[in-house]
Amino acid sequence: MFSKIAIRNFSSTAASAYKVTVLGAAGGIGQPLSLLLKLNHKVTDLSLYDLRLAKGVAADLSHIPTNSTVHGFTAEDDGLAKALKDADVVLIPAGVPRKPGMTRDDLFNTNASIVRDLAKSVAENAPKAAVLIISNPVNSTVPIVREVLKSKGVFNPKKLFGVTTLDTLRANRFLSEVVDTDPAEESVTVVGGHSGITIVPLISQTPYNTRISKEKYDALIHRIQFGGDEVVKAKDGAGSATLSMAQAGARFAGSVLSGLAGEQDVVEATYIDSPLFKDQGIEFFASKVTLGPEGVKEVHELGLLSDGEEALVATAKETLKKNIAKGVDFVKANP
Ligand SMILES: NC(=O)C1=CN([C@@H]2O[C@H](COP(=O)(O)OP(=O)(O)OC[C@H]3O[C@@H](n4cnc5c(N)ncnc54)[C@H](O)[C@@H]3O)[C@@H](O)[C@H]2O)C=CC1
Ligand SMILES: O=C([O-])CC(=O)C(=O)O
Questions:
Q1: How many other C-beta atoms can be found within 10 angstroms of the C-beta atom of residue 219?
Q2: Which residues form a coiled coil (predicted)?
Q3: Which tens digits make up the pLDDT trace of 18-57?
Q4: Residues comprising the binding site?
Q5: Most buried in the list 39, 93, 113, 245, measured by CB within 10 Å?
Q6: pLDDT tens, position by position, 31-42
Q7: Domain ranges of the chain
Q8: Using a 6 Å cutoff on CB, does residue 140 contact ligand 2?
């Protein structure tokens, strides 16, 4: 009995040792995200890169007695390449956040080139990694990364993800406030993209659909779509969501790692190079996917939608098409 347990434990540890790299690790998201990753026992090597302070953040986290070693890198001494070398999972929250009055698309001019340059190094140093994009505007930065990885011959559609988990967390929380339930028990599917009207929560697929008045439903959809604005406004010029985003990023990275480790039935919504609406010229779309040892194992159909949700999806697709083209065109013009 004892030896059986010991063998099982040993094999599960052997299958669960991963190098995870965070690019932008000293930022508002990067620091709490790195903390949460330090607490994930599947992470055995945590590499933190930023233009500033990454070594300090790494030294700080390295005192926590979990089974990972932590390394900090800045741009000097080829730090980016070293941070990325043979990583299994790379999270990218590098870039500038919004201030009140800005849309996520207003961040494009600054963040597009940051993400493009980091993606080039991912292609060279961690070509097999699962790449998780947090930097906004996600609807465009994920296509940018695809174009860079493609140009280097290492693009794998199963391993490039736009992190939309914060939309799921908000949907679960805000729905629970309306129907008075435990938010931890809710699991709303959110599809489309990650900005305003491209965020489409599928409330009709929850058990509460008929219990919510039209007025409350409209307010709920608006709050989920524009939840980011609430935080930007409250932080009053000091940035956007960081702590809830760290939780969202850590949850999504944890699910990707669970998939890589061969755990069953790991499902998350995420923005990927998706077959769902390719025939309509929409190359990326967020939907639920099952995660596995190779990354995306299965892309889920959207399922049955209400008429209102059909309309929201149609509107989302129009904006997504433009956001995706903007990212693709940027890399064509600025390789
Ligand atoms: N996907 C999502 O749901 C969410 C995305 N975001 C986005 O995440 C990004 C980061 O937000 P915060 O952490 O609040 O910003 P922040 O300004 O606090 O941190 C960004 C970090 O990136 C670093 N950085 C900048 N250029 C870099 C480069 N070339 N290489 C490495 N590091 C670099 C900065 O030094 C800084 O430490 C923003 O674009 C924001 O809009 C924010 C919340 C949610
Ligand atoms: O609103 C922002 O700019 C940051 C973000 O993506 C979010 O909080 O969903």
A1: 14
A2: none
A3: 999 999 999 999 999 999 999 999 999 999 999 999 999 9
A4: 24-30, 50, 98, 104, 111, 134-136, 170, 245
A5: 93
A6: 999 999 999 999
A7: 11-163, 165-326
A8: no
Find tokens 């990885």 and name the residue.
149
Q: Is 231 in the pocket of ligand 2 (CB under 6 A)?
A: yes
Say if residues 48 and 36 touch (Cβ distance below 8 Å).
no
User: Distance of alpha carbon 315 from its chain centroid, rounded?
Assistant: 22
Provide the ipTM: 0.99
Q: Which ligand is nearest to the CA of 51?
A: 1
Architecture of domain 11-163: 3-Layer(aba) Sandwich (3.40)
Residue with tokens 């607490």: 39
Nearest to 141 by CA among 178, 91, 185: 91
The domain defined by 165-326 carries CATH number 3.90.110.10: yes
Q: Which of 63, 194, 222, 300 is catalytic?
A: 194
Q: Contact at 8 Å (CB) between 48 and 87?
A: no
Residue tagged 């129907």 (tokens):
179
| 194 in active site | yes
* Structural tokens at position 295: 């990354």
Residue ranges of the chain with pLDDT lower than 70? 1-15
Instruction: Kindly state the tokens that stand for 304.
Output: 């049955």
CB–CB of 248/166 below 8 Å? Answer: yes
Rounded to whole angstroms, what are the CA distances from 252 to 73, 91, 92, 246, 248? 24, 10, 13, 10, 6
Q: Is the CB of 98 under 6 A from ligand 2?
A: yes
Contact status, residue 117 vs residue 302, Cβ threshold 8 Å: no
- Please state the atom number of ligand 1 nearest to the C-alpha of residue 166: 3
Return d(Cα 200, Cα 189) in angstroms, integer.
8
Q: Is the CB of 166 under 6 A from ligand 2?
A: yes
